[in-house]
Amino acid sequence: MASGVKPRVKVPKSASAGDAITIKTLISHPMESGQRKDGDGNPIPRSIINRFTCEFNGQSVIDITLEPAISTNPYFEFEATVPEAGEFAFTWYDDDGSVYNDNKAIAV
Amino acid sequence: MDFTRRETLALGGAAALTFVLPFRASAAADDAIAEFTGGAALADAGVELTAPEIAENGNTVPIAVSAPGATAVMVLAAGNPTPGVATFNFGPLAASQTASTRMRLAGTQDVIAIAKLADGSFARSAKTVKVTIGGCGG
User: Which residues pair with B110 in a beta bridge?
Assistant: First the structure.
């Protein structure tokens, strides 16, 4: 597991039903691409987050497949519709099998 | 410095290889596109890719894709060692089919976005980004 992984998500506290809201997510992660070499010329093995999903009350908002070309500390910004009060669930899947979660409730 | 025939050939071969490599990279991008679209034709309209014209730092290049009505958008960097960047799959609760992120670019190259539209057709958009400092180590 990559150390110091910390998800940060920005979701408005409340919205009107049916509103489109902008969600911004950031997770601190080195996203080692597998292309770099260490001081001795040995390649550093790939270690990235390969998938990110956002769900609202169990319904998918966005599902992103990440490749090594995504920058360190992957950042995403997207829009979601809020049909009712509920909770956004954000999930990041690491190459090594770790899963990082964050939840944000929203009132209507 | 004198070159034997053998050395000259070896040098020429190495030089040819360095020229061939960039074409191999874009062939990988074409393969990725074919895999995503299943060989379907690509329309020019329907997807919008926003990327800077000049990126000073290839490690974090902000990009945004927008494809109204699309179910999925794939972003490729044709000149990277591995062309894939990300695939955005929009769910039923996505308010608009837009997303932005930050990506790595190894050097000046084309960034390509392929959108899978709701009716099953595909659209393509590309933008050349000039990169001052590449973002793939080395």
Answer: B128
The CA–CA distances, whole Å, from A60 to A54, A65, A80 equal 6, 14, 10
Residues A69, B95: C-beta atoms closer than 8 Å: no
Is the model's pLDDT at A5 over the cut of 90?
Answer: no
Chain A nearest C-alpha distance from B87 (Å): 5
Partners of residue B94 on adjacent β-strands: A80
A24 close to A77: Cβ distance less than 8 angstroms: yes
Q: A6-106 maps to which CATH number?
A: 2.60.40.10
Q: Is B13 exposed, middle or buried (0-12, 13-18, 19+ CB in 10 A)?
A: exposed
Q: Where are the domains of chain A?
A: 6-106
Name which of B73, B104, B116 to mutate to probe chain A: the one with the most chain A Cβ atoms within 10 A of its Cβ: B104
pLDDT per position as a tens digit, B84-97: 899 999 999 999 99
